[in-house]
UniProtKB/TrEMBL annotation:
It is found in: Cell membrane; Membrane. Belongs to the AAA ATPase family. Residues 49-189 form the AAA+ ATPase domain. ATP binds at residues 57-64. Homohexamer. This is ATP-dependent zinc metalloprotease FtsH. It comes from Actinoplanes friuliensis DSM 7358. Signal peptide: none annotated. Acts as a processive, ATP-dependent zinc metallopeptidase for both cytoplasmic and membrane proteins. Plays a role in the quality control of integral membrane proteins. The chain holds residues 193 to 462 of 694 of the full protein.
Amino acid sequence: SRAKLYQPERGARTCFDDVAGIEEVEQEVTEIVDFLREPGKYRMLGAQIPHGVLLSGPPGTGKTLLARAVAGEAEVPFFSMSASEFIEMIVGVGASRVRDLFEQAKKVAPSIIFIDELDAIGRARGGSQSLGGSDEREQTLNQILTEMDGFTGSEGVVVLAATNRPEVLDAALLRPGRFDRRVTVSPPDLNGRSAILRVHTRGVPVAPGVDLESLASATPGMVGADLKNLVNEAALLAARRGHTVVQNNDFTDALEKIMLGTVRGIMLTG
Ligand code: ATP
C-alpha cells in the first residue's frame, strides 16, 4: 500500500509582495503565472509553455519562497517535494511516489509541482557512488523525466525545481521539454537587502530611529534567510530587554551576535 497521497499545501498564500530584492527574477516567472491563470489563452495560440523551470542560486536566497509566490499569484495548488526525502526512502518507493505526485497535480491542474534540492536526485548518472541508494536515485530521476516527457502541454502542470548546484545536474534534466528554462536567483545587493528587511519588519513594531538602510549596508553577503533571522533575533532581544518596540541597539546587537556565531561556526568546522 502506498504511504500517502500527495496533498497540495494549505495555509496563507504567498505572493510577490513577500519576495523582495529579486524583481528581475519575478519578471521572468510572470509568464508562468499568466499561463497558470489563463491556460486557454496560450492553448488557443498553440503556444508551448515551459514544462520545467530550474531556479538556481545559493541557499536562503528565496527559491522556495519564489516558487510558492508563483503558485500564490496564479492562485493554483502547490505541491512540494524535497528530493533528498526520496533518497532516504525505502527502496523501490521513490518512482511510485513521483507517479503519485504528478497524478495528484494533474487532477487539480492548473497546478505547480516544486522539487527542492533537485541535485540530490538529479546528479549526473553513472557517477562514482554506485552503491545501494544510487539505483533508487536513478529510478526516481528516470520517473521524473518520464513524467515530464509525458506532458503534452495541455495538462497545465508546471514543474519548478530548485538547486544550489546546477553544475552537477544530469544533462538529461536540462533538455528541451524538461527543465529548459533556467532562472538564477542571486544574493541580494544593498537595495535588495533593504527591501528584504522592509518585508520582514512589516509585522514588527520598529522604533522611529531605526534605519533599515544602514542595517542593509552593515549586512553584505547576507541573503533573505539571514535577514529574516536577523529581524527575529532583534525582536527576541527587544522582548528580553523589556522594549515595546525594536530599537536600533536591538538590531545592532543581534547582528553582532549572529556575526560572532558565524565566526565561531567557521572556527569549529575547520
Ligand atoms: P534553500 O536553497 O536553502 O532551500 P531557498 O533559496 O529556497 O533556500 P527560502 O527557503 O525560500 O530559500 O528562504 C528561506 C526564508 O528566507 C523564506 O521563507 C523567507 O522568509 C526568507 N527569504 C529568503 N529570500 C527572500 C527574499 N528574496 N525576500 C524575502 N524573504 C526572503
